[in-house]
Amino acid sequence: MSESNKQASSLSKLNLLLILVIGTAILIQENEQDRIVKIIIDTIDSTEALKQPVDFSQSTIQPINNGFMLVNAAQKEHLTGIVFTGRIINTQSVVHHNLKFTISVDDKEKEFTINKISSGNSTGFSVFVPNIKAINARYANIKYIESSISYYTK
């Protein structure tokens, strides 16, 4: 084998080795990215579980989730339960239609719907949760579930 053939053979082997090393590094990087994305998603899910409940004895602005806030929160006894009222603020730049929320209090959960909240505006709600006592109704969790959105472009 001539000297130039030996060099070409060595270069071919080196090129193959480099291709294998680079390919392996890319696979490792993709797996690492998938792992990091999973960690981020798990962190977001766990922070949702740690979310503080809203205080229905306070009328100040309180965060809910997903760009919504609660203001003018109040509750009053009605029949066998409590009527929760307030205004939900849409802090986003899109208009939400047919918004679904849940309110959870004293191990009871009730879903309620708001027809529309324009961007930067608020809409009132009133929801009755039966079979709870006022002493257990100061704190509740309100969670945004889903909606349709619309927005405008020039």
Explain how this protein is built.
The chain has one helix at residues 3-49; strands at residues 54-55, 62-63, 68-78, 81-90, 95-105, 108-117, 122-129, 139-150. It is of the alpha+beta class and 154 residues long. The protein has 2 domains: 1-50; 54-150, Immunoglobulin-like (Sandwich), CATH 2.60.40. The strands form 2 sheets. It has a 4-stranded antiparallel β-sheet with strand order 1-8-5-6, with no helix packed on it. A 4-stranded antiparallel β-sheet has the order 2-3-4-7, with no helix packed on it. The radius of gyration is 28 Å and the shape is elongated.
Could you outline the blueprint of secondary structure elements for this entry?
Layout: H1 3-49, E1 54-55, E2 62-63, E3 68-78, E4 81-90, E5 95-105, E6 108-117, E7 122-129, E8 139-150
Antiparallel strand pairs: 1-8, 2-3, 3-4, 4-7, 5-6, 5-8
